[in-house]
Amino acid sequence: MIPLRDTQPSYSRPYVTIAIILANITVFFFELSLDDFSRNEFVSVFGVVPARPWIGSFLTHMFLHGGWMHILGNMWFLWIYGDNVEDILGHGKYLLFYLGCGLIAGVVQTMASPGSRIPLVGASGAIAGIMGAYLVKFPHSRILTLFPIIIFFWTAEIPAVWILIYWFVLQFVSGVGQLGDSSGSGGVAWFAHVGGFIAGFVIIRMMRTRERYRHRYDLNW
Predict the structure, then answer these.
(1) In CATH, what number does 13-218 get?
(2) Cα(78)–Cα(91) distance, integer angstroms
(3) Domain definitions of the chain by residue range
(4) What is the mean pLDDT of residues 27-46?
(5) What's the pTM?
């Protein structure tokens, strides 16, 4: 399943979402400009290494990515879900919310694989927080989703609540299946996704959103 867009309208410009996307792309191209040794060193310094965590890396890791599919997938999900969450929070609170979810995601993954020496990189934990917030605030929105089946493609509008719950369960089950790997060598930081999603789901409930947008919750029911 590949989400293409949501049906929930946004009533303000997602300046922060766009800025985050541009920042990630800029850092990614900087990574590509480095030779292999320098790139590995850069990632090991600014990514979160659970076996020897550096406090600053819990912020910087969410602007690093490991490849084209990694960054394209993350930025696409951020674009789909981020604008509406930014819309209801406002630009400043949205930025703090995004960074906070990313920090929590890094901490959760570190706790889940404390002995791992593989750097944790990527915005997916922070974006998972955005998705958790989207589930709370826009459960009745629909996601236009592409279903590729061998050589055939078809699309359908799926309720956001089902898409997001399915995604979360998949991350959780995959993370539990990786718990026995103390080295964290599985390649995907599942519990960063889980931790970020839960953080977003909980924190958004404690934040005041723009009152004039409350009527939108039932637009697509």
Answers:
(1) 1.20.1540.10
(2) 15
(3) 13-218
(4) 96
(5) 0.90
